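Q&A FORM
Asked by: J.P.
Topic: structure of RNase H type-1 domain-containing protein

PROVIDED:
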Amino acid sequence: MGTNDGLQLVWNKGYRDVMVQLDCLVALKLVQTTEELKHACQSLVRRIQRLLDQEWRVTVTHVYREGNRCADILATYALNFSEGIHFLDDPPEDLQTLLREDADGVGRVRLCSSHS
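REPLIED BY: S.T.
REPLY: Here is the structure written out as C-alpha cells.
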C-alpha cells in the first residue's frame, strides 16, 4: 500500500518526474508485468499500474534492503502514529544520522555468500 499511497500523494502534489525504489523484487516484477495477474494483491497492483500509466515519468527500480534503511526507519517510526498520511517537519534522530552518513559518503557493506 505504501507504493500506491506514495504515488497518489506525489501525483496530487504535482510532481511529474518521480523515482520509486522497491526493496522487494517480487513487488517490482508484479508492478512491471503486462500479463494477466492471478495474485492475492492483484487489485493493489492494478491500482499502482494505473497510476504509473498517467501522464508523468516514473522510474521504478530495485534497491537492496540495505539501501532502503531510511524507509525502514520511517516505517518503524510510523508505528507510533494513527492510520493515515502524516508529514514530518524534521526527520527523526535515527534518520538524521543516516542522512548525515550518506552526505559524508559513508558506505555499507553487503554480505553475500555463494552457494556451490
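FOLLOW-UP: The CA atoms of residues 23 and 68 lie 7 Å apart.
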